[in-house]
Amino acid sequence: MKKPETFNLLFIALGGVILLFLFAPLVGMIFKTPLNDLFSTAKEQEVQKSIILTLLVSFCTTLIFAIAAIPLSYLLARKKFTGKKLIMGLISLPIVIPHSAAGIAILGFISRDTIIGKIGASLGLNFVGSSFGIGLAMAFVSLPFLINAAVDGFLSVPVRLEKAAFNLGANSFKTFFSISLPLAWRSILSGLILMFARGMSEFGAVVIVAYHPMITPVMIYERFSAFGLKYARPVAVIFILISLLVFIVFRVFSNKSKIIKIRP
Amino acid sequence: MLELKNINLSLGEFKLTRINLKILSGEYFALLGMSGAGKSLILEMIAGMIKPDSGHVFLNEEEITNKKIQNRNVGIIFQEAALFPNKTVKENLAFPFNKKKIAKKKIEQRVLEIAQLTDVNNLLDRMPETLSGGEKQRVAIGRILALNPQVILLDEPLSSLDAGKKNDFTALLRKINRQGITMVHVTHDYHEAVSLANRIAVIHNGQIEQTGTPKEIFHRPNSKFIADLSGIKNFYTAEIVDENTALLENVVKITLPKMEDKERGFVSFKMHDVVISLNKMQSSICNQFEGKVIDIVKLTQNIEIVVDANIKIMASITYQSFENMNLEIGKTVWIGFKATAVQFISKTVD
Q1: How far is B49 from chain A (nearest CA, A)?
Q2: Cβ contacts of residue B333 below 8 Å, gap of 6+?
Q3: Where are the domains of chain B?
Q4: Closest residue in A to B71 (Cα–Cα)
Q5: Please, is A202 exposed, middle or buried when counting C-beta atoms within 10 Å of its C-beta (0-12, 13-18, 19+)?
Q6: ipTM exceeds 0.85
C-alpha cells in the first residue's frame, strides 16, 4: 500500500482541527437541546414572530439597499476618480469596527433630534425602536459584503464587451442591463446572499438601535442574560437550523443560475 | 472619406504624435505595426472610444471627433470578437437592431440575411463559448453589418485564426469591402497587410512612418523599421562617398547606381539578389567581398546564409546550391551583388 505523504497528513490534521473548532460547538449545542424543549419553543408565538421579523427585515433591507449598492459597485469597478481607494476602504470599515460602535453611530444618525430622524417623524416613521431602525443597522454592517462582491463581479466583465455594445448603438442603460449586470450577476447574487445572511445574524448594532421589536439574535441574548443557557439554547438551535435551511436554499438557487464563461 | 488630422494623444508614457491619415471611401486600408505601436488606439479613436488630446477626425467631411460613439456609423471588430457571452449568436446579431423601433419579423429577416452572408446560419442558436475562433469572427462581422456602417475597423481580426480559417475570413472581408464599405485593418503581419490592402500606413512608436501602396512600402521602405518588418534583411546605414560609391556602416564601400548628391541614408538589397561562390567571380557583379559563413538558417524551401564580410550580409540559396558548395559555418566564401540591386533611401526616419 502506498504510504501517505507527510505533507498531506499534516495538512489534513491541521484542517481537521479547524473543522472541529467550527462544528463541535454547534453540533454540541444541538445534541444538548432536548427535542421537547425545541418543539415547545418553536410553538411560542414570540419566537415565531421574532424569526419571521429577522428574516423579513434582512431580506427587504438587502433588496432595497441593493438598488443603490449595485450601481455604486459598478462605478467603483469602472470609473477612475480621486479618493476611490479611500471610498473602497470606507466601505469595508463596518467589517472591522465593533458592531456596538456601529450601532451607536447609526443611532446618532437616525435619533429623533437629527435631521433624518425629524424627516422620518414628519412622515410618521420612527427609526429608533422600529423595523426601519433594525434594517438600517443590518444594512450598515452587511453592505460591504454585497458591494465588494459586486465590484469583483463587474471587474470580471471585460470593458471591451461594454465598448462593443456602445459601438453597436446601445446606450449606457442598455449596456448595463443587457451586458454588464447579467455577466456580473453570479458574483452579485453571492453578495446578496452574504449580505442577507450577515444582516439576519447581526446583534451588536441592532440591539443599540432597536431592542424592540425583538429580532432573534437579541431574543437569544435576552433569554440567556435573564434565564441562563438552558433557556436560550432552544431558540438559538431553531434559529441556526432555519438560517442554515435558508442559506442552503439560496445557495442551491444561486448555483443553478447560469454560469457564463467570460473571456476578454 | 475618413480623415485623421494632426491627432495627438498621450496615455501614460505612450504618445500618438501627429497622426495624419486619409482613407478613401470604399478603400481597404491597413495599419501595420508591431504590438504597442498605437494601432489599436487609432482604431478606438476613430470609433469614438477614446478622445484625442488634439486633432480632428472627419468622416465624409463631417467632423466626428466629439460625436457620440453610438452615432458615428463606424463599426469595430476586436481581436477576440467580443461577442456577448450571455447571448446566443442570433441575439448577438440582433443586438444592434434592438434600439431601433423595427418590427420583430423584420429584425428576424435581416438577421437571417446577415447570417447567410457571413455563413453562420447554422450557428444561430449556439452560445459564443461553443464557437471556434473563425466562427466567432464571422458572427462579430455579421453583428457589425447589422449596423449598416460606412466604415468597419478591424483590430487584428486574423490573429486568433488558424491558416485555413484565415483564408475563409479574408475572402469574407474582401466580399464585404466589394460592397463599398471602407475597411481599416490593423495588423502586425505584413503578409496580411499586403494581401488585403489597397494602401498601407506603417506605424511605429506612435507615429506614422510611411503611407503608400504595398509596392511603395515594401520596395521603397523609408526606414529600417519598415525594412525589418518587410523582411528585407540587408539594410544598412550609408553615406554617399562619390557618385558611384557608398560607405556602409562606416566600414564597407560598395558600388551603387549613380548618385547626384552626397547624402546620408540607408542602403538595402534583397537576399535573393545576393550570390555566393567559393571563388571570386569573373562577372559584371561589381560588389564582391570575401567573408566567412557565420550562420545557416534552414527553411522549408531555401536556406538563408549569413556571411560576415565586415558587415553581415544575408543570402538566400537553394538546398542544391548549399550541398554543391559544401557550405558550413566558418567556411570562407565570396559574396556578391550587382550595383543595380542596391537601393539607396535618402530619407531618414529612424
Answers
A1: 7
A2: B276, B277, B278, B290, B291, B292, B293, B307, B325, B327
A3: 2-225, 234-346
A4: A169
A5: buried
A6: no
Interchain proximity B95–A264, CB inside 8 Å? no
C-alpha cell at A35: 427535542
pTM recorded for the entire structure: 0.79
> What are the beta bridge partners of residue B77?
B154
- Report d(CA A127, CA A117) in Å as an integer: 7
Q: How far is CA A75 from CA A88, A194, B87, B101, B229, in A?
A: 11, 21, 24, 30, 42
- Angle, helices A35-43/A45-78, rounded to nearest 10 degrees: 80
Residue in chain B closest to A177 (alpha carbons) equals: B86
What is the dihedral sign for C-alpha A248, A254, A258, A262?
negative
Contact B143 A168 (CB under 8 A): yes
CA distance A256 to chain B (A): 15
Nearest Cα to A142, choosing from A204, A187, A186? Answer: A204
What whole-number distance in Å separates Cα of residue B286 and Cα of residue B288?
A: 6
- Yes or no: say if B275 and B336 are a contact pair by the CB < 8 Å rule: yes
Cβ A195 vs Cβ B118: under 8 Å: no
Superfamily of domain A44-256: MetI-like (1.10.3720.10)
Taking contacts as CB-CB distances below 8 angstroms, the residues of chain A near B143 are 168
Measure CB to CB from residue B85 to each of A166, A169, A261 and give the nearest one.
Answer: A261
Residue A100: phi and psi, rounded to 5, are: -65, -40
pLDDT tens, N- to C-terminus, chain B (350 residues): 999 999 999 988 899 999 999 999 999 999 999 888 899 999 999 999 999 999 999 999 999 999 999 999 999 999 889 999 999 999 999 999 876 677 888 899 999 999 999 999 999 999 999 999 899 999 999 999 998 999 999 999 998 788 778 888 888 999 999 999 999 999 988 778 877 888 999 999 999 999 998 777 876 777 777 777 766 778 788 888 888 899 998 999 999 988 777 677 778 888 889 999 999 988 888 899 999 999 998 887 889 999 999 999 999 999 999 999 999 999 999 999 999 999 887 643 33
Q: How far apart are CA B53 and CA B56, in angstroms?
A: 10
Q: Is A79 on the interface with B (CB under 8 A)?
A: no
Does the CB of A260 have a partner CB in chain B at under 8 Å?
Answer: yes
HSE at residue B181, side-chain half, CA atoms within 13 A, is: 26
Residue from A167, A178, A263 to probe the interface with B (highest B Cβ count within 10 Å): A167
Strand segments, DSSP code E, in chain B are 2-11, 14-23, 28-32, 54-59, 62-63, 74-77, 151-155, 182-187, 199-204, 207-212, 234-242, 245-248, 252-255, 264-269, 275-277, 287-298, 303-308, 312-317, 332-337, 343-345
Q: Is A182 on the interface with B (CB under 8 A)?
A: yes
CATH dotted code for B234-346: 2.40.50.100
Fold classification of B2-225 is Rossmann fold (3.40.50)
Q: Does A170 touch chain B (CB under 8 A)?
A: yes
Instruction: Using CA coordinates, name the residue in chain A closest to B96.
Output: A168
